[in-house]
Structure formats: C-alpha cells, structure tokens
Amino acid sequence: MADNGARSGDGKDGGRPHYTGHRQRLRQRVLDAGGQALQDYEILEVLLFAAHPRGDVKPLAKRLLQRFGSLAAVLAADPGDLAGVKGMGDAAAATLKVTQEAAERAGRERAQQRTVLSDWEKVLRYCRVAMAEDKVEQVRVLFLNRKNQLIADEQLARGTVDHTPASPREIIKRALALEASAIILVHNHPSGDPTPSKADVEMTREIADAGKKLSVNVHDHVIITRTGHASFKRKGLL
C-alpha cells in the first residue's frame, strides 16, 4: 500500500521538494540581518539563485567550496576552472565573476575616499580581495597624491606562477603621467610564502632610486598571499 506521507531520503514532503521556501528564507535573513548572517555556502547559494531559477543550489555551492577551498577562491577562480564543477554554466560563472569585480571596485572606491596611510588595514583587505587568490604573479601600483589619497590603482605587470616582469621605468613614467607624488607597490605570491625574493628586493630598490630622482616617493612594497602579507618598509628593506 502506498505511503501518502514523506518518504525517507526522497527529498520530498507531501510531494513538495525539500527546498521549497528555502530561497525566500535565505533572502529574508539577508534583509533582516545582512549578509554577515549567512555561511559562505549560503552566500554562494544566493548568488547562484539568478543563474539557477529553479532547483536546489546548495549542493553546487558546497561543491564549489570543496573544489576551491574558500569563498574568496571561488570568486577569483577562472571561468574555465568554474566550468569544471558539475552544475556550473556560463550564467553562473558570469554571476560569480561580476560579484568579484563589484567587491574590488567597492574596495577601491572606499580607499579613494580616505588617506591611504591612515587606513592601512582597509587597503590591505582591498589588495587581498584583488590579488590573493590569483594563480600568477601580478604587480599593482597604488598612485597617491600629496595628501596620500589614492589617485589610481593599476595592474602594470602580469607574469607567471613565480615571476612578474615589472619595468621600473614604466612604473615611474606612469606615476609622472598621473601627477602622483608617491606610490605603493603591491604584488602577490601564489606560492603562499610572502618572503621577498632577491629579485623583489632588487626591483624595489631600482624603482625607489628612479622615483627619488623625479620626486616620486615609494612608501612601501607589500607582498600579498592567501594567508598574510609582508611589508618591505617594516622589514627595513625600504
């Protein structure tokens, strides 16, 4: 005789999927308490709702975290790598990539509204969002005015897993074009080790020497990793 009630493990309750109402409950939690009320996989669920208008996206959210290791790593992942996760399509990948871009732009705008050196932790957080999960090295330069306010943040070089061909001449040339009086160099180490290499130290000194001749001060060079950072200034290398 058929059982008219819920069946164990069938994911249904009286013919209704177990996730019925789940989306609205998640949205309401965001509206009531903000995004901080959600776990990482729940944030991914909300982001994926638009790309997956029906069905349960919780398994996909958890697969993404399992594959990449963290929310930040999911958002920073290449579209090709995202496509390798079961359930991911172009719409979902585009949603995640535009979310990462929105976070970067918001961080940049907040930095531009403040004196960079007086709000260093916010600058570091912004740099981690922009660079920490990148699989290859990149060099970004924060260009500052005389009040140490951010004029521009630009990626001026991109390299391989362990090397970035940054040109001191081009960096100082760009600073002069922007009428910047100071710069902060930032680059990432995909290896996870923030220790400056010999090449990092030599490049930084070349840029600092070139800048000094043209009244462009190098305030610091920061190496960003997934787990921390290293400051040349604090290490006595500048």
TrEMBL record:
Keyword set includes Hydrolase: yes
Region named Disordered: 1-22
One Gene Ontology MF term: metal ion binding
InterPro entries: MPN, RadC_JAB, RuvA_2-like, UPF0758, UPF0758_CS, UPF0758_N
Database matches in CDD domains: MPN_DUF2466 (cd08071)
Protein family: Belongs to the UPF0758 family.
Name of the featured protein: DNA repair protein RadC
Taxonomic lineage: Bacteria, Pseudomonadati, Pseudomonadota, Alphaproteobacteria, Rhodospirillales
